[in-house]
Amino acid sequence: MEYDEWAPYYARIRREFGFAMDRERAAAERLRSLLPRDALRDPLGRATRRLAGRDVVVVGLAPRAGAPPVWRLPVARPTLAIVAADGAAERCLDAGLVPEVVVTDLDGPVPSEVLANARGALVVVHAHGDNVPQLERWVPEFSGELAGSWAGPPAQELLDVGGFTDGDRAAFLAAHAPARRILLWGFDFSDVREASADDAVRKREKLRWAGELLAVLARGRTPVLTWRSDGTMEPYGGGRGPATQ
To answer: Does residue 126 sit within a domain?
Structure first.
C-alpha cells in the first residue's frame, strides 16, 4: 500500500488512541540517530528484495500456535520466506527457523530478535511515541542488518508501507514487496489474556484494528491466506475472530 492510501487509516487510528504526531516525529528522529549509517540506506528496497516473488509466512503469537509447520507446504513451492512479528522470532528460532525479516517495536522478548538478527534476519525496528526507551536500550544491541520504520511519511531513511501492530505491519511489508502470496500463521485477534484489566480494552481495540487492516490488505493484489493449525488454508476473511484455531 502506498503512503497516500495508508495515511487516512492512520489518521483515524491517531484520533482514536490519542497519538500525538510530535511524539511520533521525536521517536523517529531518535531512531535515526541510533541506527548505523548502513541501516539508513534504502530500507524499503533492502526489505522488499528479501520477500519479492516469494511465499511469505507471517508468524504471529497466537496461544498454542507454535512455529509454522513449513514442512507441510508442497515441495514445488516458490522459495519460502518467514517474517516474524516481534516475539514470534523466538518461536521460529526454537524450531530451527531463521526469519528472513523480523518486524518489531521492541515490546516483546527482544533478545530472541537480537539473536535472529545475528543469524541473518533483517530487523525492521519501528519507532512510535511510546517506545523511545526501548529504542535506546535495544537498537545498539543488534549486530546484523537493520532498517527503520515509523508511522509518518516514508523518507529515504525510514519506511512506512502501512500497518499498525507488528503483525499487520509485517503483512503490509510483504504485500508491498510484492510477495507471491501471504500466509498468516499464529494470528489471534481476540487474545488479551496477558493484559491487565486496565490495558485489556486498549489492546482489544488495537487487535480489532489489526484485523480490519488485514482485511483491507486482502482486497489488494497479493493473496492473503489464513493458515490454520489443521493444515488448511483459506482466504483471509476479517479480524473479528482468531485466525489460528
So the answer is: yes
* Residues 83 and 174 sit within 8 Å (Cβ to Cβ): yes
Coil/strand/helix, residue 53? coil
18's grid cell = 490519542
Query: Is 244 within the bounds of a domain?
Result: no
From residue 64, alpha-carbon distances to 127, 163, 188, 206, 229 in Å are 29, 24, 11, 21, 9
Q: Is residue 30 part of a domain?
A: yes
* pLDDT tens-digit series, residues 56-66: 999 998 888 89
Q: What is the 3-state secondary structure (H, E, C) of 61-121?
A: CCCCCCCCCHHHCCCCCCCEEEEEECCHHHHHHHCCCCCCEEEECCCCCHHHHHHHHHCCC
Using alpha carbons, select from 210, 212, 214 the residue that is nearest to residue 224: 214
What domain range is 217 assigned to? Answer: 3-235
In the 3-class helix/strand/coil scheme, how is 155-200 assigned residue by residue?
CCCEECCCCCCHHHHHHHHHHHCCCCEEEEECCCCCCCCCCCHHHH
Q: Across the chain, what does the average pLDDT equal?
A: 91
Residue 242: cis peptide before it, omega within 30 degrees of 0: no
